[in-house]
Amino acid sequence: MHAHQSTPEADDSDFWNAVETGDPEVLARILGSDAATLTNALPALTRWRRERHR
Predict the structure, then answer these.
(1) DSSP of the chain, one letter per residue?
(2) How far separated are the first and last CA of the chain, in Å rounded?
(3) Considering the domain boundaries, does residue 45 fall inside one?
C-alpha cells in the first residue's frame, strides 16, 4: 500500500474552494479560461456543491 494516497477531493481542493466562494477569477485561472465564460455557470456549481455537502 502506498504511504500517501491522493483523493479526488484533495487534488481538487483549489477548484472546489473557488466554486464554494463563488470566485470566477480564481476558477478561471485554475481552468485556464476567462471569468466571463464561467460567470453564468458558477452559481449553479456553487449551489450544487453546497447541496451535496450539507
Answers:
(1) --S----HHHHTHHHHHHHHHT-HHHHHHHHTS-HHHHHTTHHHHHHHHHHHT-
(2) 32
(3) yes
Rounded-to-integer distance, Cα 25 and Cα 14, Å = 12
| Cell numbers given for 26 | 480564481
Burial class (CB in 10 A: 0-12, 13-18, 19+), 13: exposed
Q: What is the model's pTM?
A: 0.70
- Separation CA 39–CA 2 (nearest Å): 39
Domain that holds residue 40: 13-52
Residue 11 has pLDDT above 90, yes or no: no
